[in-house]
Amino acid sequence: MRAAIVVLPGDGIGPEVTAEALKVLAAVGRKFGHEFVTREALIGGAAIDATGTALPEATLEAARGADAVLLGAVGGPKWDDPRAKVRPEQGLLAIRKGLGLYANLRPVSVNPRLLGASTLRPEVLAGVDMIVIRELTGGIYFGEKRREADSASDLCVYSVGEVERIVRVAARLARGRKKKVTSVDKANVLETSRLWREVTTRVMRDEFPDVAVAHMLVDACAMHLIRRPADFDVIVTENMFGDILTDEASMLAGSMGLLPSASLGDGTRGLYEPIHGSAPDIAGKGVANPYATILSVAMMLRHSLSLPREAESVERAVSAAVAAGVLPADIAGAAGVAPASTIAAGDAVTRALSDN
Fold it and tell me: How confident is the model over 257-275, as pLDDT tens digits?
């Protein structure tokens, strides 16, 4: 097949990790006979420096014409003035909205080789394999914001339609897994959460009677992610709760540098990125972990390009590299091995891909 992919390296370690992901993607093309046509564009701080905006119109148009988008990371100290009218994060929010992407999928599993990388006991981590579905376009991040001399407010708004569509994404995914969804809210306090719970209950009852649903308050979920993480399968929640909970869940795997994500809408086009940030403190040092970005390519192959065999091949190659002890600095210490460079990690995956 032939597929067009827009690559947004972004800021900080973004260009370094996307370079390794593209190396692996090229290896997939060679192995399976596909042609992946890539085109780079600007987003985030790099775009602000070049154009004065965090998401140039040319970038959005290129993304709209592509089959998928691969993103590195955005942000950094250079643009970190909270009073600035233009900030790198605005580019990320704007491209999600511009592409109609409302469902963020973040899988979390634990590689046996890395049980020591987490601060939790190995027996607590046994069997952890979950996916968190985070709503992306509603909630407090997009609500009206006001600032007065002595007060400030952020409005949290959700519509019935927004809740329905994200719950359907979670339920469809659950049908291919353990048929179990945990919906996370704060219905004891927030009116938006009461709406969320009511709509979720109705959609699951009427459209997915074969999938079990449980409701959990966000504070309880935060606790149980640490206490009994293996009990979760598919978690669905609103924008801010999902942002916080997925960062917490990343520590189950041992590092944010291991976890990919996909942002999807109603069509096949998606935006794929590691869940970590731009890590400006290590940018340019060649020590960033590229595995999350490489695994994001696997998600791209599966969800946007309908190439599940190729996706599984990439995932196996990453597991093989980890099993062989090719571990970047963020996880090498806990495993008791010398850290591998960003390039060495990408090379290890490429070799494993050719071998499996």
Answer: 999 999 999 999 999 999 9
